Automatic annotation (TrEMBL):
GO terms for molecular function: Wnt receptor activity; Wnt-protein binding. PANTHER family: EGF-LIKE DOMAIN-CONTAINING PROTEIN (PTHR46513:SF33), VITELLOGENIN RECEPTOR-LIKE PROTEIN-RELATED-RELATED (PTHR46513). Pfam families: FXa_inhibition, Ldl_recept_b. It comes from Promerops cafer. This is LRP1B protein. LDL-receptor class B repeats lie at residues 1-43. One of its GO terms (biological process) is canonical Wnt signaling pathway. The gene is Lrp1b_1.
Length: 179
């Protein structure tokens, strides 16, 4: 799945399949300006920052069990969001610090370091990487991903895929080759 925020005409947190199909709103009320999003891949939770409502909140992948982690004026200066173990990590653009926030109570906040011009944060650790099994976009005997001549996008499951073409090309009737 692909998770993303939108604060256009109607602010929301959404998810869809990697090919853009099955687009679903998972949060569409009491949300104004969601600017950063992080996933807990193990427990299947979605965290986001809302700088207008000055809050950090969480829901499960279906949009249920919504909780506010923390609220306050300091939220308006946060950008980027990552989750690892018991903490959320974010960047405070006001004082250029990396913050660690306890994701269960929101009160345990610590500044870890200062970085100039940081706007995003990511945690790379083996436990945050999903186990990869065979999938529909693996290279075929000719080296083409999922048998697609240009782009292979996973669909509703790791067993399904959709072929797409680069700009200026159209998908052929075989659903795999681009012309």
């Amino acid at each position: 799945k692909l998770f993303f925020t939108d604060y256009g005409n109607a602010a929301k947190v959404e998810r869809c399949d990697m090919d853009g199909m099955n687009r679903t709103w998972i949060v569409d009320s009491k949300i104004e300006q969601p600017t950063a999003l992080a996933l807990d891949l193990i427990n299947k939770y979605v965290y986001w920052l809302d700088i207008y409502l000055e809050s950090v909140e969480v829901v499960d992948y279906q949009g249920r069990r919504r909780q506010t982690i923390t609220k306050g004026r300091q939220i308006r200066y946060l950008c980027g969001l990552a989750v690892f173990e018991n903490y959320l990590y974010t960047v405070n653009s006001d004082n250029l610090s990396i913050l660690q926030i306890n994701r269960y109570n929101g009160t345990d906040v610590q500044a870890l370091a200062r970085l100039d011009n940081a706007k995003e944060i990511r945690v790379y650790q083996k436990r945050t990487q999903a186990a990869v099994r065979g999938h529909a976009c693996e290279a075929d005997p000719y080296g083409m991903p999922g048998g697609c001549s240009h782009l292979c996008l996973l669909s509703s499951s790791y067993k399904a895929r959709t072929c797409r073409c680069r700009t200026g090309f159209i998908l052929g009737t075989d659903g795999r080759s681009c012309k």
